[in-house]
Design goal:
With 111 residues, the chain is of the alpha+beta class. It is built from three helices and four strands.
């Protein structure tokens, strides 16, 4: 399980553990993903583009940044008064609310 992990996972590790490495991203992928799209950068881009909804994506890791199959998404409203920091606070609430239970579900399913 990765959270806040900013390095690209080596292909050999991904090949050794296909659909077993999981990451959480602070936006609704496929939007606002990719190299350099993390933390404040994501929230600033969401606001700058006038999005009305953002959220989290829990996904499998593949050879590309923020590209693997989606396991789960949760959303929150982007308010007209939002700053990257206020949006990040709501995104963190979603992360804390959902990440542990989704990981538990995936691990239980994998056996």
């Amino acid at each position: 399980m990765l959270a806040g992990f900013l390095w690209k996972v080596p292909p050999a590790l991904i090949a050794a553990y296909p659909n077993r490495i999981i990451n959480i991203h602070p936006a609704l992928l496929p939007k606002y993903g990719g190299k350099g799209m993390y933390g404040h950068h994501v929230h600033a881009a969401v606001i700058a583009n006038g999005e009305t909804t953002s959220g989290i994506t829990i996904h499998y890791v593949d050879e590309q940044y923020d590209h693997g199959a989606t396991i789960f998404q949760a959303t929150c409203e982007v308010l007209p008064s939002d700053t990257p920091d206020t949006l990040a606070a709501r995104i963190h609430q979603l992360e804390h609310q959902f990440f542990p239970s989704i990981i538990e579900q995936v691990v239980t399913t994998l056996g």
